[in-house]
Amino acid sequence: DDGKKPNVIFVLGAPGSGKGTQCEMIRKDLNFVHLSAGDLLRVERETPGSVNGAAILEHMKNGTIVPVEITCTLLENAMLKSGEKNFLVDGFPRNQDNLQGWIKQMGDKTNLLFVLFLEAPEELCTKRILSRAANASVVRPDDNVESMRKRFQTYINDTMPIIEYYHSKGLVRKVDSVRPPDVVHQEIVQLLKKTEGF
Ligand code: UP5
Ligand code: MG
């Protein structure tokens, strides 16, 4: 261990903006571990005997945010287990509770490089999610019109203020996520090339 703190990039954006898609592309050609908070919560939800499973499913269907103690611990454990140093934290922090909880539990243990903000309009995001649902063998319990409306509501009311908070600190890198995945990816690669410290 070189004693250096692990590097973190928060990846934020509306449901369907392409967070998971872009994180996978970065993971594949750069030295980053992809940690999707939503995926970690979905695994926890399916784990037999998990005390949080039912609550997680309820939050997901309602588009509301799971208490930070649960999410942050899943993230920290996944970071430790990987033994790696560079992390894409996908879909977190989504509200004030997440932000305060992360700062308290992880703030001193990590080095935040920047917040990657994938921007795409709601209509396009909705279309993408509905087409994913139409083509999936297993449909996410929140990939339906009713849950989606609630997810967007939460995004506007609770997550945008977090993006604005980091923007005021000069830490947001905004990328237009309307374009094809590989075009978006190339812009992110350029952003990473300009980033020092990892
Ligand atoms: N697609 C992607 N990029 C494209 C492009 N450039 N052009 C054309 N198509 C593109 O993409 C969505 C779909 O669009 C895919 O079919 C893809 O091929 C296509 P994806 O990369 O999956 O987008 P993403 O932004 O990851 O969308 P996702 O649906 O995962 O977003 P959410 O933010 O809603 O989902 P998440 O899993 O992060 O959270 C789900 C729920 O978990 C939350 O609502 C909340 O209840 C809970 N949660 C918490 O409580 N706390 C957390 O910290 C995190 C989640
Ligand atoms: Mg995702």
**DSSP strand (E) fraction?**
15-25%
Which strands sit side by side, in order, in the main sheet? Answer: 2-3-1-4-5
Distance between the termini: 14 Å
Which ligands appear in the coordinates?
Answer: P1-(adenosine-5'-P5-(uridine-5')pentaphosphate, magnesium ion
Average of the residue pLDDT scores:
96
The succession of helices and strands, N to C, reads EHEHHHEHEHHEH
Radius of gyration: 16 Å
**Approximate helicity band:** 40-55%
Spans where pLDDT lies below 50 across 5 or more residues: none
Task: Profile the largest sheet.
Answer: 5 strands, parallel
Helix- and strand-based class? alpha/beta
- The number of helical segments is 8
Number of DSSP strand runs: 5
Apparent shape: globular
Write the topology of this structure:
Elements: E1 7-13, H1 19-29, E2 33-36, H2 37-46, H3 53-62, H4 68-82, E3 86-90, H5 96-106, E4 111-119, H6 122-135, H7 145-168, E5 172-176, H8 181-193
Parallel strand pairs: 1-3, 1-4, 2-3, 4-5
Helix pairs in contact: 1-8, 2-3, 2-4, 4-5
Question: What can you tell me about this protein's structure?
Answer:
The protein has 198 residues and is an alpha/beta fold. 55% of the residues lie in helices and 15% in strands. The protein contains 8 helices and 5 strands. The chain has helices at 19-29, 37-46, 53-62, 68-82, 96-106, 122-135, 145-168, 181-193; strands at 7-13, 33-36, 86-90, 111-119, 172-176. It has a 5-stranded parallel sheet with strand order 2-3-1-4-5, sandwiched between helices. It starts with 6 loop residues before the first strand and ends in a 5-residue tail after the last helix. P1-(adenosine-5'-P5-(uridine-5')pentaphosphate (UP5) binds next to helix 1, helix 2, helix 3, helix 6 and helix 8. It is found in: Cytoplasm; Nucleus. It holds the Pfam family ADK. InterPro entries: Adenylat/UMP-CMP_kin, Adenylat_kinase_CS, P-loop_NTPase, UMP_CMP_kinase.
